[in-house]
Specification:
Elements (H helix, E strand, L loop, with lengths): L2 H14 L7 H6 L138 H34 L16 H13 L3 H6 L13 H11 L1 E12 L2 E10 L2 E10 L8 E2 L4 E4 L9 E2 L2 E2 L4 E4 L2 E6 L5 E5 L2 E4 L11 E5 L1 H20 L20 E2 L5 E3 L2 H8 L3 E3 L6 E4 L3 E2 L1 E8 L2 E6 L5 E2 L2 E4 L7 E3 L1
Antiparallel strand pairs: 1-2, 2-3, 3-4, 5-8, 6-7, 6-9, 9-11, 10-12, 13-18, 14-18, 15-16, 16-21, 17-20, 18-19, 21-22
């Protein structure tokens, strides 16, 4: 065989000989052989793909062949495979998202569904968690008791960062707000307690206008008020009303005691109570002197301190029609037009001997806020007063009739010249009383004036007879006056020190 033939055979043997696969360590460390088909390059920074080992030689370059020369066989160096360490993640450019562990990267072949190996996830030979159960994220602790509902992929933006903690200023603000709220609650409670204590301390039933005890209901206050009135306790009764009386002349224990004797208040019963927003209407019934009374009391809590007071609670006695008679009410002298009284029974009287209170001198004030009815109560002359009145009028008439002068008084005066021209002579007039006039004078009645209760007024008395010498048309004689003056209406102030008869 020639040298050329031998060289050709060697080239064919070298070309046809199969390549020896490199050792496992060398294959992992070395780059891809030249001429090999391009393998998909792993994405930059993909986890689980170790970088090329430092200092590993590249694949052996092809050697040229020469005729008659056997090319040396390439023996890749043997390296001990180092233990795999997780390389630090390469820094990404600013704004570029980090790849999410376990998701396929660009240009990387995909594993079949269910066979992808995520760092920290169980491998194929390990038991899998049930479908839908949340797998723990590498690097994050698994929260105990957290729901395991199905979670979708978190998208290209990657895992959410941990929730930011509150700053020191926010925590201090929350604490200060809680402390302020607590202080407000404490202050409100303290104010309520102080008001309750002040209401209890200020409810002295003996003080005028102080109302009942704190906590007493409006019905209790009304019952206490009527009970005090019936027992003659004017001081307690006054302490249960809200306003100071305009005049307390008749608001005394003496007057109430006399009222109880005339007609006491009994059978006090509360029928109803309607209370709303510090105001109450209490309906009650009681008896005064055997007469049943149903009435209402207005009760107020002015200061909202639990102390109820009767609004008003007093009635009025209109005494103007008895002015000048020195009238008394239950024995108490009373002067004025309208005097305030408690509900009760009241008797009017006068100490003057010429007068008396007639008709209905005893009146019952049934309920508060009312005015006593005196329509059936009048002042009259007493018997002594009437007798004196008649005596005074008769004496005045006798004096006037006895006069012979033209001016005689008692309404019996005459003019010197009469209407028909008849002339009279003064000192020659003779006046006499006819029988019917005398009868009228003897039975004369008198009434007291409404405007002036002490002024007694009699009825019209009547005419008199008059005779006198006269001259008419030059002739002289005795004339009888047919239409002469008459006795009119007498009146006497029966309370005057020196009573005088006046004529109208």
């Amino acid at each position: 065989m020639s040298n050329d033939d031998q060289a050709d055979d060697q080239r064919r043997d070298a070309q046809g000989a199969p390549e020896q696969p490199p050792a496992q360590g060398a294959q992992d460390a070395a780059g891809p052989a030249q001429g090999a088909p391009d393998a998909p390059a792993p994405a930059q920074g993909a986890p689980g793909t170790p970088p090329t080992a430092q200092g590993a030689p590249d694949a052996a370059p092809p050697y040229p062949t020469y005729p008659g020369q056997q090319p040396p066989q390439y023996q890749p160096p043997q390296y001990q495979q180092p233990a795999y360490q997780q390389p630090p993640a390469p820094q990404q450019p600013y704004g570029q998202q980090q790849p999410h562990p376990g998701y396929p990267q660009a240009n990387q072949p995909q594993q079949p569904y269910g066979q992808q190996r995520h760092p920290g996830y169980p491998q194929t030979n390990q038991p899998q968690q049930p479908y839908g159960q949340q797998q723990p994220h590498p690097g994050y602790p698994q929260a105990s008791g957290q729901g395991n509902g199905p979670q979708g992929p978190q998208g290209p933006q990657g895992p959410q960062p941990p929730r930011k903690r509150l700053g020191t200023g926010a925590i201090v603000g929350i604490i200060l707000g809680g402390v302020a709220l607590l202080l407000v609650i404490v202050i409100v409670i303290a104010v309520v307690l102080v008001n309750q204590f002040a209401g209890s301390a200020g409810s002295d039933p003996g003080a005028g206008g102080s109302g009942g005890d704190a906590g007493d209901s409006p019905s209790v206050v009304v019952t206490d008020y009527l009970t005090a009135v019936s027992e003659g306790d004017a001081e307690t009764a006054l302490s249960l009303i809200s306003d100071e009386p305009e005049d307390d002349t008749l608001l005394t224990g003496h007057v109430l005691a006399a009222s109880a004797e005339l007609g006491a208040i009994t059978d006090i019963t509360i029928l109803n109570e309607v209370t709303d927003n510090g105001s109450s209407i209490v309906t009650t019934s009681y008896s005064i002197g055997g007469s049943s009374v149903d009435t209402e009391f207005s009760v107020l809590d002015y200061d909202d301190d639990g102390v109820w007071e009767i609004n008003g609670g007093l009635a009025y006695l209109p005494l103007g029609q008895f002015d000048g008679l020195d009238v008394t009410v239950n024995g108490q002298p009373a002067e004025g037009d309208d005097l305030q009284v408690f509900p009760g029974t009241y008797e009017l009287a006068t100490p003057l001997p010429n007068f008396t209170i007639a008709g209905t001198p005893t009146v019952v004030v049934t309920d508060p806020y009312s005015t006593a009815d005196f329509s059936d109560t009048t002042a009259e002359l007493s018997e002594a007063g009437l007798a004196q009145f008649r005596s005074l009028v008769r004496a005045a008439v006798d004096a006037c009739v006895a006069s012979t002068s033209l001016v005689a008084g008692c309404g019996l005066d005459l003019q010197p010249t009469l209407d028909d021209g008849t002339q009279l002579t003064d000192g020659t007039i003779k006046r006499t009383l006819p029988a019917d006039t005398i009868t009228t004078l003897d039975s004369l009645e008198a009434t007291l004036s409404y405007d002036n209760p002490t002024l007694a007024q009699g009825d019209y008395v009547g005419s008199i007879d008059v005779e006198a010498p006269c001259t008419q048309n030059g002739q002289t004689g005795v004339c009888s006056l047919l239409f002469g003056p008459s006795l009119g209406t007498p009146s006497v102030d029966m309370a005057a020190e020196n009573p005088t008869v006046l004529w109208d």
